[in-house]
Amino acid sequence: MRRTWGMGGVGQVDSATGAASGWGARRPQDRIVHRPTTVGRPALVRIGGGRKGDAFGRGAGVAKPCGPGFVRGRGAAFVRERGGRRGSQAGFVPGRAVLVSILVAALLLAAGCRMSAGPGARGGPSGAAKPGRASGLSARSIPVVDPDSGDTLARLSELLDRADLRPGARRPDYGPLIEQVRAFIATRPQTFGIYFKDLQTGATWGINEREPIHAASTIKVPLVLYVNHQVAAGRARMDDRVVYEPDRDLVGGAGILQRDGFPGKSYSLRILTNLSITISDNVATNMLFRHFGKDNVGAFMRSLGGEVIFPEGRRISTARDMGRYVEAVLDFARRHPLLGGRMLDDMGHSIFHVGLPGLLPQKVFVAHKEGDIAGVADDVGIVFSDRPYVLAILSKGVDDIDRGFEDIARISKIVYDFQEKLGPVR
């Protein structure tokens, strides 16, 4: 998306389609015609009843680039008319005012070109993008998003910065934390598999982290990540559609498609990936597995370092493997900010939000995925605290699912408090 500046206003132009929106974008009911002005140059006139999608405010001349993401046009005047009423005309201005107008226009265009570079863009004051990081999404590159809105994409750059590895940083002693967690789980009847990684130092530890446990709906994390990889590689598109086949896809449990899905109706990859994460829709998940192939997803999981992958066709995994897949989402977001940021956003806004984030302060962003079946309660994710970390907790032999997630929340709080005492790496 590019911002456009011109005498007609400010808009945004989609780099792929050329569609424009914003102040100065042509409205669906408008059309543009040329009208001679007193100085012999054509003026742009806005009259109701035109076509949607062109940038308004470019001037009557040919649009010229003035920097990355910006377009300028020659200073043709324009008249806006709606419903037969004549608007104001920014055409001929006599005498000294002409020079003043030209000077103001030049200053505005120069300011626009400076803004296009931005302090974090390539060639800007801060230099090139960080190694291993695609030129990212920020409040500057998505100007329609308020950086204080809480939107994940608006603060993605800050979240990724916080989770970056600090080379050479001293790894803390996690012995006391491990003992504290062991003391808690010793009081509980279920078997836990726990994997932890401090993202700023790379330090890891685990408790039964290689114990095979049913992954339940946490398996949807590597599945949806695989779909995003296919889209990023150009082998699929988010607007590709998959037809719902109840005889192959229908299953009970979480989701809405089992009730509201229509046989023979198609659904886009974007909605299927979103439903799989945010409401853990099992039908959407089955449709994705069928469309892309379970063996292909399994091979992808193995490429990420997974060790226990669909034994006997079952969705069995380990805390260590699930931690690897969650961290891979973060790595993907660094290389593909829009796709990866959107997946992190989906993981952070699931309707199931009681495990890892259950006892943490609301201000802490937790991108995670919960899952449960009879006797199993799992939650895996990234906690973006002041000292971010990956935490995967799988549990089996759970008598009460609600209590199982309460136990996960307690373990998560123990880990969070320890990390907060350490503070960020300086």
TrEMBL record:
Compositional bias segments (type: Low complexity): 127-136
InterPro entries registered for this protein in UniProt: Beta-lactam/transpept-like (IPR012338), Beta-lactam_cat (IPR045155), Beta-lactam_class-A (IPR000871)
Pfam family, one: Beta-lactamase2
GO biological process, any: response to antibiotic
Disordered: annotated segments: 1-29, 118-145
Compositionally biased intervals (Gly residues): 1-11
Annotated keywords: Membrane, Transmembrane, Transmembrane helix
Domain Beta-lactamase class A catalytic: 193-394
Transmembrane segments: 90-112
Transmembrane helix found in the keyword field: yes
GO MF terms held by the record: beta-lactamase activity
PANTHER family (alphabetical): BETA-LACTAMASE, BETA-LACTAMASE-TYPE TRANSPEPTIDASE FOLD CONTAINING PROTEIN
The protein's name in its UniProt record: Beta-lactamase
